[in-house]
Amino acid sequence: MDQRISFIGGGNMANAIIGGLLAAGYKASNIIVSDPYEPSRQSLEKNFGVSTTTDNNATLTHPNTILILAVKPQVMKQVAEGISKNVLQFKPLIISIAAGITIPDLSRWLKMGSTEEPCIIRCMPNTPALVSQGATGVYAPSNISETQKDLALNVLKSISKATYWVDKESLLDVVTGISGSGPAYFFLMVEALEQAGIQLGLSSEVARGLAAQTCLGAGQMLTTSTDSPSELRRKVTSPNGTTQAAIESFEANGFRDVVARAVKAATDRGDELGRILGAQVNE
Questions:
Q1: In the predicted model, is pLDDT for residue 255 greater than 90?
Q2: Where does NADPH bind (predicted)?
């Protein structure tokens, strides 16, 4: 594919996206990454054959470029203001994966007094993107065309098995609560299953292996079956059997409420961190 794709920031998520893009048929010769750290640049060149630079503006020298901002939120204002002239000149489609940085803030830094709105899409991927199994929530404001949305989706499909649009930017905090933080919930569940298995006599290796594969297999059933989660659960829950005993214990101990409160806590913290970060970088 001949689409030009530029990255500012060459960390883990950028590496995952680049690997996915190349696997999907994008050309390494059309990809450039700006990163200040020489080891990161050397690794990108060696592993993917892409061009690298230390000059952020060197990533924006052509029209019809997709620019992926993959830097830490704390440096986003500095980065955005530094590339503002080139953004106004070449008008890239910008995809931001920086947590907590809102489109209004990013737009203001990029415009630097101009009245022209840059084209920005904000997304929230999660860490399974590092193994091309990510889930991503995406938001686009009204100035983004359907063609631009399709371009963004094609990029995000390189790391995500599930990509969903939300109709309000604030809902990305809920996405964080479900899928952004979600991998840790499953890691915790596997930890708990492993500990339970050890207490009942299994070795750590056996308990962890069984729990991890069960998590993986159940997830695959969820994504390939037409049955709802509740229907799948009922199918493996025989009356008066072992699974029913476990489910009844979960329910009696408030499992659903625990999950709901955890997701709400993550969502609220995401909103709070966004406001704190916005206040800090705008000082």
A1: yes
A2: 57
In this prediction, residue 53 has a pLDDT band, given cuts at 50, 70 and 90, of very high
Q: What is the rounded distance in angstroms from the CA atom of residue 170 to the CA atom of residue 192?
A: 32
Distance CA 219, CA 65 (A): 36
Binding residues: 8-13, 57, 70-73
pTM summary value: 0.90
Q: What is the pLDDT of residues 87-137, one digit of tens each?
A: 999 999 999 999 889 999 999 999 877 788 999 999 999 999 989 899 999
Buried-state track 196-225, b at ≥16 Cβ within 10 A, e below 16: ebeeeebeeeebbeebeeeeeeeeeeeeee
DSSP structure string for 213-227: HHHHHHHHHHHH-SS
* Binding site members for NADPH: 57
Task: Count CB neighbours of 29 within 10 A.
Answer: 11
Which domains are delineated in the chain? 4-172 (3.40.50.720), 180-270 (1.10.3730.10)
